[in-house]
Design goal:
It is a single chain. The protein is mainly α. It has one domain. Helices cover 77% and strands 0% of the residues. It has 14 helices and no strands. α3 packs across α10.
Length: 297
């Protein structure tokens, strides 16, 4: 089988698992509160990633790390998994899964904003219009299409779902600057993130034995959202002739997520959710078009 074909298979597998997460989050949160869900899922991710670095021999790079490397992971683990998932899970517990799926997809736009602010990357008028277009999509979703009334169905839930993308974009920018080996770095980030959520749960009294169903859902999320998909996606990028050939497939994920939410959670997908998501993705694609046009002109 050709390398590019394998790359597509790995990428599509990752996207398929990612697409189940809106459903998995919503269903599991029926049995666990957000801090408990994050505690179990992040521990599961540590075990999974630990096995991966043992099998691949990547654990050897851990012995070469310096104090500054641990400091980086301490900061990155604060953003992801701790703050990102704690805020995102809380959002899922407050609003419909379809809204959370769509609103959280604003993160590529946040990444552009962060790159402009912290990486000093210049953006043009088209990029600014693309950012505004994507953000307008979040208003369509959060207001259920009643934009003129400016009345949100659940303001705090919408803010949390959108705001979680700030923490993911922060993590992404830090990760772009970090040249350490990917698997061991991710393992160490999750170790710190688990420590933060453990301290959070101990201080807020969220330590309790989960039900079997809740435990199963949290383990599934830990493996397929936080662990395996990372491995599959990284493998796809390494096999692909160009990053763009597999990266563009990621736009399938939110629409597949809506389909699964409809089937397995039983939510009636609103027209405003689909329209808002199309607007967000259109803004992201416009931003990418602007980037490549300026790069290769």
């Amino acid at each position: 089988m050709q390398r590019q074909t394998l790359a597509y298979l790995y990428a599509l597998s990752a996207i398929l698992f990612w697409s189940t997460m809106g459903t998995a989050f919503k269903l599991t949160l029926r049995f666990l509160d957000p801090p408990s869900l994050l505690l179990i899922s992040s521990l599961t991710a540590i075990v999974f990633l630990g096995i991966i670095i043992l099998i691949t021999g990547k654990y050897r790079s851990l012995s070469e790390l310096k104090i500054k490397d641990y400091s980086r992971s301490a900061l990155m683990g604060l953003f992801n998994p701790f703050l990102y998932y704690l805020v995102l899970f809380k959002a899922y517990s407050m609003i419909q899964a379809q809204e959370a799926v769509a609103l959280n997809y604003i993160w590529p736009v946040m990444l552009v904003v962060f790159s402009m602010l912290f990486l000093k990357q210049r953006i043009g008028l088209v990029s600014l219009l693309a950012i505004l277009l994507s953000f307008s999509g979040t208003f369509v979703i959060a207001t259920h299409g009643n934009i003129t009334s400016f009345r949100f169905t659940n303001p705090l839930g919408a803010i949390l779902a959108t705001g979680s993308s700030i923490f993911w974009a922060s993590f992404f920018v830090l990760n772009m600057k970090d040249k350490r080996e990917a698997y061991s770095k991710m393992f160490l980030n999750f170790c710190f993130g688990f420590l933060y959520i453990l301290l959070w749960n101990l201080s807020t009294g969220h330590m309790s034995l989960p039900s079997f169903t809740g435990l199963g859902g949290a383990v599934y999320i830990g493996i397929f959202e936080m662990g395996l998909t990372f491995v599959l996606w990284l493998t796809a990028l390494n096999l692909s002739s160009t990053t763009a050939r597999v990266s563009n497939l990621v736009y399938l994920s939110p629409f597949l997520s809506l389909l699964m939410v409809s089937v397995f959670v039983g939510e009636k997908i609103l027209v405003s959710t689909v329209v808002g998501l199309f607007i967000i993705v259109s803004g992201i694609l416009l931003q990418q078009w602007s980037f490549y046009r300026n790069k290769y002109k």
